[in-house]
Amino acid sequence: MEAALRGVKIDSAAPALFDLALNQIKPYAGGNDSIWSIHVLDIDDKHRLLLPVIEFVSIQGIEVEDEHGKVVQGGTWGTDQTPPYYVPIEKGWHLKNKGKVAFSVLFGVGETTLQFTDIRDMLWTFSIHVLQIVQSLENFALAELSRRAGSGK
User: Considering only 26-30, 53-57, 92-96, which range has the smallest mean pLDDT?
Assistant: First the structure.
């Protein structure tokens, strides 16, 4: 990042902005992990991450009645099967309660440091870091306007 900013001469044109980006925002590996995680994802990954698809489901609370009137409760193993969900039952048994679908949102292996993080926690973390960056940039812009107004530029 430092080389990229120096390449477009941000270090000399706006040294305070250069310092803010490099030493406070830190959008690079080893800097701010949340911002770096967002950066390393390609556009499709960002859509899959921020608009997750349910990939792993099971059905819990199923109740069936056997041929002798005994009610058996249970559930299914997890699956990545897409709806509709089918559960085989013994011939002569009757479905008493179809149960409820339970799901988990899982993220695959990737470069993000937040893989396998609950989506709500991850989005909260991202929103806090983005808000901090926006506030830093706003404060920088206000300070720069004030400096220019004071110097007559």
Answer: 53-57
